[in-house]
Please model this.
Amino acid sequence: MKQLIVFLCTTLLAGAALAQEKFTGSNVDIRMSLAFKAPDAAIQRLIPAGWELNSPTSGPTRGANLNVSVLDQQSAQDPEGKPVTPYRGVALTIPVKKTGSDAAGSMVVEGLFSPSNAPGAYGVFLPAKVTLDRRVRTDAEGKTSVEESWQLMSDDGHALQIRVAYVRGTATRVKVESKVYSGARPDFFRIYRYEAATDVVRSTATGVDRVSAFSLKASGQKLAPIFDGSEQLIAVTSIPWYSRQVYVPGL
Model:
């Protein structure tokens, strides 16, 4: 009887937690994550009052204060499971924590995206024309080489050009739950529950380096101070598949 009571209480608590969340949709992407140590002054200006930088102290992105997520949606669905138009773009996030609390996660502060996802749920993305060239080659010995070139241009002069070439390794399957906050409205966050395959192709922290070419150029008043030439590339992670469900806190 005692075990039954414990089971029922656990089930009720789990149900109550889910009832406090609202499912907003799902998507499947191809992604790439670029971790940087960017100029401290530029990063601090992007963090709203009451929040502080929370750089990772271990792992392949140790010491990074900025993450550049490059994403190419393959499919997307609304809460009812109906297909919606996929989008492409680049999101800039900062690892943060709320001062004096346990609240922590990533904070989306800038980005360039297909017009269908601008300004986006976080209210910070600029609409842009996005061009992507991805080439994948596997030779007779099974070695797979990947090259990606991205060009993103907004009408107001903001632009990003990214090129990465690397040799693919063995990906690790991960299952993650995270909170992602808005730099424009820091009290707003979304909950991501996703599975992904991750392949760290460069990490200064672990000594991995299968990247043969890398370049990033940025322009525009919001992007230029972040990428002023002094930024250091900490890690490059290839994410050949990423399957996510998105929730927001319930009312």
About this structure: The chain has a mean pLDDT of 93. The domain at 23-249 is CATH 2.40.400.10 (Acetoacetate decarboxylase-like). Helices lie at 2-19, 40-46.
